[in-house]
Every structure is written in structure tokens, then in C-alpha cells.
Amino acid sequence: MSNQTAIPFIQMRGGSSKGIYFHLADLPQDKTTRDNLLKWVMGAYGDPRQIDGLGGGDPLSSKIAIVAPSQRDDSDIDYSFVQAIVGEDRLDDTPNCGNILSGIGAFAIETGLIKPNGDQASIRVYMTNSGNRCLLQFPLENGLPIYHGDARIDGVFGASAPVMCHYQDLEGSACGSLFPTGKYCDEFDDVRVTCIDNGMPVVCLRGEDFGLNGDETPDQLNNDEILKSRLESIRLQAGLAMGLGDVSGKAVPKMSLISKPLAGGAVNTRTFIPKHCHKAIGVLGAVSVASAALFEDSAIHDLATLPDGMMKDMTIEHPSGKFDVQLCLENRDGRLQIERAGLLRTTRLLARGEVFVPISVWGGK
After folding, report:
1. Does residue 129 lie within any of the structural domains?
2. Are 287 and 323 in contact (CB under 8 A)?
3. Which tens digits make up the pLDDT trace of 301-344?
4. Is the residue at 363 inside a domain?
5. Which DSSP letter does residue 44 get?
6. Contact between residue 139 and residue 109 where contact means Cβ atoms under 8 Å apart
């Protein structure tokens, strides 16, 4: 008998991230055992290199998706996201990940969970982390996902087939309301911020309040220990105010430093997830930042260049390019309401096989 347990997996690039995708039925049903197993899978036992696992030593490649047929009438697939925290012996299943989400439909088809007809898939996904829904639409050929095409996204080399992500029910995904502190603008450590949750809890701050122009590289910001200390102090206070409790061990809220656009977009961003400056910006983080910019009393509204009309096509600038977000608005009783968000992503099947964990971690079924 082997001293390791083999578990089927697929590795996919979803958007500008990379993750290990599992079927729920192939994992332990006990959460404690499952979490312990997933840390072994990723090599997430405190080694920042993740040498003894499939993690890539970076937050963008240390991600896990758990997929199952949905138990809900309004969804086809249930998707649970898990972030393995690089360099730490822990996981975080608090946030969503919109990048990894973009590969969920392809995974479901590749593994036989869904058998679509025609030349386009329309798969309704329920995000268990937050209770939100998303409709994924992408092209098919002979009943299988197409991975080649003309769609391009920043942070990914080349072009691929488009995956359109139509998000619903994003407001208050983790915190219960769009502005979870009850205010458009708060102040922590004498710094004005906007705390928002439209798919991802984010604290939006003005870069100029930290002496930043917006053209700093992630490496420059990651080497600024004073800046990181100030941001973490604000993050801990904001987390409590947003109803997230003690966030010292959580990946949310994200911290996004906002400046005026440098390349014709709506705003320019430098985002910490949660303590390390991201080379891009997360999908749902971009939606939350774009949402915060719309409200006149927010801390960042005057920094933004916004389009007219109730359908807002907004470009969010980040260190490696841009991210396009479409927000559909309604005016309800004089209050601005964000009805849905649409985003273009791409995905690609990278590998499939079995990942092995010690039998002492899980003896299997």
C-alpha cells in the first residue's frame, strides 16, 4: 500500500491568477482534515517558496478552487475559494477570487459536471464564500471549452478565448452592505479612507496622503516598511469597523492606494493583498474600487475620471496594465444603486493529474 494518497486535480490559469481546482467529492468532508490536506497540496506550511507542494510562492499562484454541482435552483455549480497564505501556515476562505472564478465553467465541463450543447456555454455559478452569483459565458467546440482566441487581458501573455463574467448580488458580499461602516468616508490614523464591499472588502486610500504619486513599482512599495506598517494599522482598524472582526490573520480587507489616472483610465491603483503589493489588481477588488469612485462623498471620488451615463465602462489602472469594469447603475429613490458588474477574463487548462499527500494526512475514502 502506498504511503501517499492520490487526489485528482486540474491546474488552470484563471484570469491573471493560477490555481489548483478540485471536485468537492474528491476531498475530505471534514473541514479540519480538508484544510490540513490543502496546505500539504500547496506546500503552505510556512515555507514562502512552497517547495514541497504545488503553490507558486506568490499570492497569485497559491490559490485553490473547490467545485461541486449546486444544490440551488438558481445555479448550476457551487464554487468555494481558498487562498493559501504564502509564507504562513494557514489558509483563508474569507474572500472570493474573480480570477479563479473565470476557470470554474471550463473545469466543470472538462470534468463532466456539466455537458453543454451548442457553441456557447452559459454556466450559473454560486460563490459559497460570499453568497453571490455569476453567469459565465464562453465559446465551445464539440462540447468542450475553447482556449484559443483574440481576447487579451493585462498580466497574461498572448490571447485566449473570452470568458464573460456577469456578476450579480455583489453588494455587501462579505460585510453585509456596500458601505459597511455606514459612511462613505471614514478616518483612521488621521487618514481619510472609503471602506467598501461590492464583491470584495476594500479600503480605498489616497496615495498622496502617503507621499505617493501612483507610478511607484510594487517592489518599491514592498520595500517601504514604514508605508506597510501604516497601512496595516489602518487595515486592522478598518476591519473592525467593517464588521470583519480581527483581520490580522485574514486576507481581507484589501488596501488600495488610489491616485489620478496616468494612462487615460478612471483611476490608478496600487493594491495590497493584504500586506503585499499586488502586481495587478484582483477582479472583484477592481469592481469595489470602481464602485467607490462613483460616490461623490467617497475619499477618492475627486481623483477619478468618470464616464457619463448609467452604464459605466471604467478602466482601472494597475502596475502591469489595466482592468476594464462595466457597472450598470440605477437610481432608486434618489439613491445610486449598482445593479450588476460585467468583466472580461480568459482561462486556460494547464495540467491535469493526481496530487499526492502523505497518507497520515488523509487516508482517502
Report:
1. yes
2. no
3. 999 999 999 999 999 999 999 989 999 999 888 888 898 899 99
4. no
5. -
6. no
Q: What are phi and psi of 71, to 5 degrees?
A: -90, 0
Cell numbers standing for residue 283: 477582479
Percentage of the residues of the chain whose pLDDT score is greater than 90? 88
Q: Do 22 and 74 lie in a common domain?
A: yes
pLDDT at 1 over 60: no
Please state whether the peptide bond connecting residue 274 to the residue before it is cis, i.e. omega within 30 degrees of 0: yes
33-44: average pLDDT: 96
Domain check: are 214 and 113 in the same one? no
Amino acid at residue number 212? L
The helix or strand, by DSSP H or E, that contains position 63, with its residue range, turns out to be: strand 63-69
User: What per-residue confidence (pLDDT) applies to 287?
Assistant: 96
Closest CA to 310 of 342, 350, 339, 271: 339
Strand-pair partners of 360: none
Is residue 365 assigned to a domain?
Answer: no
pLDDT mean over 157-175:
92
Residue (of 39, 51, 107) closest to 78 by Cα position: 107
CA distance 100 to 190: 36
Task: Using a cut of 0.85, tell me whether the model's pTM lies above it.
Answer: no
Q: Rounded to 5 degrees, what are φ and ψ at 107?
A: -60, -45
User: E strands, 70-119, where?
Assistant: 77-84, 91-92
pLDDT at 253 over 80: yes
Domain count, the chain: 2
Pairwise CA distance, residues 90 & 129, whole Å: 17
In the chain, what is the straight-line distance between the N-terminal and C-terminal CA atoms, in Å?
14
The domain that holds 92 is classified in CATH as: 3.10.310.10
- The answer to whether 319 and 217 have CB atoms below 8 angstroms apart is yes
pLDDT 10s digits, 173-209: 899 999 999 999 999 999 999 999 999 999 999 999 9
State whether 208 and 311 are in the same domain: yes
CA–CA gap between residue 291 and residue 242 (Å, rounded): 17
The chain-wide mean pLDDT, for the chain, equals 95
